[in-house]
Amino acid sequence: MLQYKTPLKRLLKMSKVNAACVIIGDEVLNGKITDTNSKFFAKYCYGMGIRLGEIVTIADDETQIVNTMRRISKDYQFIVTSGGIGPTHDDITYESVAKSFNLPVKIDEECKTRMDRISHPEARLDAKGLKDCYRMVTMPSGSLVKNYYVADDLWVPICSIDHKVYILPGIPQLFTRMLTSFTPTIRKIYDLKENDHEYIRFFIKTPQSESQISSYLRDLQNEANTVSNEIKIGSYPHFGLGFNTVSILGTKDNEKFLKDISSRTVTALKGEQISAEQEEEYSNP
């Protein structure tokens, strides 16, 4: 009989960082653009061993932003927002998030100086346009606020409130680049040692239908729960391809158990183990 870590030992090692992602923008809700930032953030958290508990998409609406931020800040320690920090009338993220924490907003002189040096808005905008441009440097202010500049060629910072909320641009290229560059700081803030809480996942391809495998997977999840509540068993149909896949996800310190149940699942479901790349190809042809 294989011996595995008890739930108590598991809890002492697991990451205690719970994350949430808030996508802000009418353009996402009305279908004008497709949100890719939340998918990137989900993979980012997976790679960091951070438990992502919620992704929420909301409108450019002050009341909705304030209510959402106040709600999720009670349950999550790592909250990232995306979008709503441009110069136009509907870019209200800075003001709304500040209000969520009862903070004022004001022009951040360091950010303004960086903007002037890198972007030279005064050379290309009239007075009215310049005033609107400086809305992007009108940010939450106070002792809880810290701005992180992650690249010399970018004037926009990651604005942090209480080392809990991190306000990022919605432009996917910037969101991805800035969050990636911010990784060492995130590890330091949350005391995340590399590979300490790394997630690992196994995929099994089976010709059996979801109805045929559901009872087995239910029992498998119940068994896994006795080892760690971080282990998640999932099934994914691939319509038209003649097979389904099973996902077995957990943390690296339970690798022995995960490998064992993966091997058993291959046998029980008459399947075969496949790579994450193969699963991605099946899921996103």
TrEMBL record:
<dbReference type="GO" id="GO:0042726">
    <property type="term" value="P:flavin-containing compound metabolic process"/>
</dbReference>
<dbReference type="Pfam" id="PF00994">
    <property type="entry name" value="MoCF_biosynth"/>
</dbReference>
<feature type="domain" description="MoaB/Mog">
    <location>
        <begin position="20"/>
        <end position="189"/>
    </location>
</feature>
<dbReference type="InterPro" id="IPR001453">
    <property type="entry name" value="MoaB/Mog_dom"/>
</dbReference>
<protein>
    <recommendedName>
        <fullName>MoaB/Mog domain-containing protein</fullName>
    </recommendedName>
</protein>
<dbReference type="InterPro" id="IPR036425">
    <property type="entry name" value="MoaB/Mog-like_dom_sf"/>
</dbReference>
<dbReference type="GO" id="GO:0047884">
    <property type="term" value="F:FAD diphosphatase activity"/>
</dbReference>
